[in-house]
Amino acid sequence: MRTVSRVRWRSTWGAFALCGLLLGLHVDAGAETLEAVLYRIFLSDGSTIVSYGEYSRVGDQVVFSMPLGAGIADPGLQLVSIPSTTVNWMLTERYADLARAVQLARTSVTFRQDAVQSGNMDTAWDASAAASGALMLFAQAQTDLERQLRTPESR
């Protein structure tokens, strides 16, 4: 039983490391437009659902917009509601923290480009604040993951 929990712990940690890497690859310094953030809702059965933008917990339900079709720039959206008991909240919330950190990093890059082009110090300060916020969110998500994925023997 201990071996199974260690294997699950390692595979879960590996999955989140990969998610963080993949999220990080989407930071595009040349992006002119703000893209919607796609969140993943991890289900208890191991599958995932994509949410176009933030999801919301309403009572015992999770409500979100699911993108339909292949076009991410202007997808058709379907409002979906699922029972909150079917969601693996630890994975879903940590992934959302990482997605928010990446979005804040994107904002920082945009502000920094604007500051360099305009010479505006207020924009430069905004870029620094956004970059600091992104680093803090990422560090918090990492700390939370490490704490929650710690094997029972090491708690």
Could you list some keywords that capture this structure?
single chain, 155 residues, alpha+beta, 3-stranded antiparallel sheet, two-stranded antiparallel sheet, 5 strands, 19% strand
Gist of the model:
The protein is an alpha+beta fold. The chain has helices at 2-25, 89-118, 121-148; strands at residues 38-42, 48-52, 56-58, 61-68, 76-83. Helix 1 (2-25) runs parallel beside helix 2 and helix 2 (89-118) packs antiparallel against helix 3.
Structural commentary:
With 155 residues, this protein is of the alpha+beta class. It has helices at residues 2-25, 89-118, 121-148, and strands at 38-42, 48-52, 56-58, 61-68, 76-83. It has one domain (10-154). 19% of the residues are buried.
Largest sheet: 3 strands, antiparallel
Order of helices and strands: HEEEEEHH
Which class of secondary structure composition applies to the elements? alpha+beta
Q: Output the strand order for the largest sheet.
A: 3-4-5
Q: What is the percent of helical residues?
A: 40-55%
Spatial extent as radius of gyration: 18 Å
Q: What share of the residues does DSSP label as strand, in percent?
A: 15-25%
Low-confidence stretches: 1-19, 21-33
**Shape, please?**
flat
> How far apart are the termini?
17 Å
Number of helices: 3
Q: Quickly count the domains.
A: 1
How many DSSP E strands?
5
Mean pLDDT: 77
Blueprint (SSEs and pairs):
Elements: H1 2-25, E1 38-42, E2 48-52, E3 56-58, E4 61-68, E5 76-83, H2 89-118, H3 121-148
Antiparallel strand pairs: 1-2, 3-4, 4-5
